[in-house]
Amino acid sequence: MLRKFLFLAAGLLGCAFVAPASVNAADAAKLAAPAKKFTLPPSAPSKNQPYALNVVYFVPADMEPFPDYERRISEIMLSLQEFYGSEMERNGFPNRTFGLSKSKDGKRVNIITIKAKLSGAEYPYSGSAGKVLSEVNEFFSGKKAPKKLSDHTLIIMPSTSGNDLDPGGVPFYGLGRNCFALDYPEFDLKHIGKKDQLGRLFTKWYGGMGHELGHGLNLPHNSGKVSDDKKLGTALMGWGNYTLGTSPTFITRAHASILDQCQVFRTTEMPKTPAPNVDKPKEIAIRFLPEGVWICGILPEKNRVEHVLVYYDKDECNSVNGDYDAESFVAKFDKRTQMFKAAIPTNEIHRGKTGVFQIRLRLINDDGTCSIIRYNFDESYKQDVLEPADTKLADIEPPSSKKGKGPAKK
Asked: What does pLDDT average to in each consecutive run of 10 residues of the chain (410 residues)?
């Protein structure tokens, strides 16, 4: 998200001493590869996916869409679709991406244009998102309206700033499964990667759209691990909104795991009933060791968890937007025993400023929903967590590492 814009809805970890057991040698090679520089993909019909992102162009009553918006937005959405898909593949998942409704030749995205009830001045950045959503939902509930393609919607609004070189004035953030972005006359993929004024402006709003779209696809903020940043650049859901399209930008493996269960990434129908929330693990042990943090837990038997993620969140970890610096890890998870294991090496964590930090479990269900469990700590007093106190998990030895510098060899 852009620094000057606040993400209004905080809606929303990972063996690191050893590679996760679910990653084979080929996948590990992909993980080590540089973030791919993407290009507009060849025009082709969408793959067979039962759900697609709703792309809405919401035009205030006293305005008209900016010229050639359907072509410009289509090319931008196809480019973002390719970026997300290539990052899923780099992270060891199939090359799946969010679905889009397209024309038969695949060259255009089907954009739903809605004429608003009010003037542009009545949809300011702060406080108008609910008003916009109410009108969008009312539109979709109409008898002659097109059917919503999924629960996830991107709402694009033409800039109301009155300055084409300084667009703004409208909502630009994530709100649950909805996200907002803006359009301006030169918001055109032809400017991607350029270092002139229009190129820099494009990076800001293209990266911002990719970031806010992430929120609408269930992604919270996060940071890359130390090794990720060195190899891959900037995490999209960190400060990648300033780099996407200009310099290496990536989606973390943890966030690829979230997308793996997202409705619009699915190739099968959604489960018929919602997944239950998991309030806490059945058992958990969090141990602070010289080389890092070792976490081992067992989930309750009745759940539909597919992935267990661990976040190490430092400064302002309990505040809205305080999670930009949260490194994320994917735990080794055995669905048969419901046991998960995660190791967080000290040398993979960026230095914090306050000493206060949070270890957060994010349990990803098969319907894309999640359960979040938090544990707060202070560097000056890091006491192990054992719940219940007599848990035998504390006796499970963490994977060894050579001086904390990398995965142990088996």
From this structure: 35 31 37 39 53 97 98 98 97 94 91 97 97 97 93 98 97 97 98 96 98 98 96 97 96 98 96 96 97 97 97 92 96 98 97 95 98 96 95 91 40
Backbone dihedral angles phi then psi of residue 175, each to the nearest 5 degrees: -145, 90
Residue 386, strand partner residues: 285
What are the Cα distances from residue 239, in Å, to 207, 210, 247, 248, 251? Answer: 9, 11, 12, 12, 11
Distance set, CA 71 to CA 102, 125, 181, 202 (Å): 12, 25, 16, 16
The C-alpha atoms of residue 353 and residue 337 are separated, in whole angstroms, by: 38
Question: Three-class SS string for 196-220?
Answer: CHHHHHHHHHHHHHHHHHHHHCCCC
Q: Give the ranges where 6-128 is alpha helix by DSSP (H).
A: 25-32, 69-90
What is the rounded distance in angstroms from the CA atom of residue 58 to the CA atom of residue 128? 13
Q: Indicate the helix (H) or strand (E) that contains 372.
A: strand 370-378
